[in-house]
Sequence to fold (174 residues):
Amino acid sequence: GNTFSGKTVVLKEDIDLENKEWTPIGKSLEKSFQGTFEGGGHTISYLKVTRTNENVGLFGYVADAEIRNLTVTDADISGSQNVGGIAGNAGAGTSFVNCTCSGEVTANYVKRIGGIAGVWNNTIPASPITLQNSTFTGNLSSKDSKIQSSLTDFPNAGLIGDYSTESGTGILEF
Fold:
């Protein structure tokens, strides 16, 4: 499949997905979205993703990608882990600029759920992962029975679910 490396995909108008089941773009590092997604200030509304696996969101897996000027509203996204409103798994070199998401994001594993990205996976070679002027409003929840009714006690719950690095270094710029 095409990773779109070096390419730009432009959203030309608002899209209403009407709560129809969406298949996330990018399944693994080898099949991740690696280009630029220019939202152009447009909105994708009523995004619905219901999966039992990991790497779940509008994008399942992105690496060395830029997602910018995008709004996702009324999202209803669920998966096992690495679940995010925009991307489930954001690999090294990825940036989110001017991205907004609102809705419900649910995972079975509480450490890897976020309003923008479920996990920031900065593996070798480590390169900056950037989050600029991006917001999430809505509910993050876990199906894990060990977790109480809210994620407020978890410092990593919010825009980014978890951050991992194999190299011992990494940069997260806000």
The chain is about 0% helix and 50% strand.
